[in-house]
Amino acid sequence: MTGAETALRGPWYRSLNRDQWYALLASNLGWLFDGYETYALILTVAVALHQLLPPAQYAEIPAYAGTVIAITLLGWGVGGLIGGVLADYIGRKRMMMLAILAYSLMTGLSAISWDWLSFAALRFLVGVALGSEWATGTSMTAELWPDHARGKGAGLMQCGLGIGFFLASLIWLFVGATGPDAWRYMYLIGILPGLATLWVRRGIPESALWERAAERRRAAQERRRAGATLHAHEHALTRFTLFDLFGHAEIRRRTVIAFLMSLTTTLAWWGISSWVPPYIGSVAAKDGLSPAQWASFAGMAYNVGAIAGYAGLGFLADAYGRKPVTILFFAMSLLLTPVLFLWTHALGLLLLVTCVNGFFSLGQYSWMPTWLPELYPTRIRATGVAFVFNAPRFVAFLGPLLAGTLIVHFGGYGHAAVIVASIYVLGLLAAPFLPETRGTTLHAD
Length: 445
Fold this sequence. Notes:
The protein is an all-alpha fold and about 450 residues long. The protein has a single domain (about 15-435), classed as MFS general substrate transporter like domains (Growth Hormone, Chain: A, Up-down Bundle), CATH 1.20.1250.20. Helix content is about 75%, strand content about 0%. The chain is built from 22 helices and no strands. It has helices at about 5-10, 20-50, 60-90, 90-110, 115-145, 150-175, 180-190, 195-205, 210-225, 230-240, 240-245, 250-270, 275-285, 290-320, 320-340, 345-360, 365-370, 380-390, 395, 400-410, 415-420, 425-430. The chain is globular, with a radius of gyration of 21 Å.
């Protein structure tokens, strides 16, 4: 019985075996840890800079915060590319373990920052560790899950980010009141995920598709060393994966288009949505309420919407196709930016709009684990997914810098957010040019 026939005869989840669920759980947990650490930075960066900068520079904290976030994003891009390439050579499972260990170590070290420069340097190293995990988990889930449910698996995996964001907001609600060193405690908590590597090592299978592709790569390399004439597919297997990514016209075209879409998602989120908690905190402060408390409420509301959006995009993409659903999420994110930052003023209503905004603006990230694995052959899947997901960070790191500068210039968040939101137009223009891949079968090529 084929996967499609199984899907027609009963609920989709009954067609999955234990290994497939465990692979999803491992990928989800890895992304959850990354989400916790990322949102911990967003929630704590202003508090940390109040301790790490002299009082005379407090007025410039938004610009310094944008710089620290940008440096983290730049490190994420570096680590993501390295991790994706290594996952194609040493395996999905092994790379995931290395990524989680590196993340735990670097997060713990960032708690000992003594000035803003050391904080920024350690955040770069945290970014390197964070970036190396996502493409590995995405490739593993895509290769183990069946065709008819791959979008659902991708959406459920991506939920880990929102759960991590939510946990960071919830924990900060309590830890944030412990004093000026509260931000350090948030990073120390981030050491704990390193224990997960013990379970990954014992409980998660390696991707069979990757193992077959790795065998073919070894065989092609042995034939080349023996002086044999290689066929075209064998020659592709012997090329460095980043070179192979741009060595075929159709794969190159897909990569460029997907890069533009990823740039849209990445720059918009880091340049706009990362400012949601401090923005709502500033609105609360004007009403005489605790900005830290309302920033935590905003983070939780935003990520409740995001978790639903992550899963929702994956389920919708399996039902209606990758292309129309991704375009819908781009369009709604563009529309909701002024609704959130300019047109809504009551705090209660702001939380509701924040939740809806999170569904689309952060939930849209699921187009990447859903669509990207189906655009690349197994031999370069992790490299391709990692390049598209991470390379935009070498451009998108300018988003927080620009947004921070605009916030200082305008004296508020609203106009800065709307200006940066124009990047969504790029995604709307690029998405129609990628092929629809719903139901695609992955092969060990």
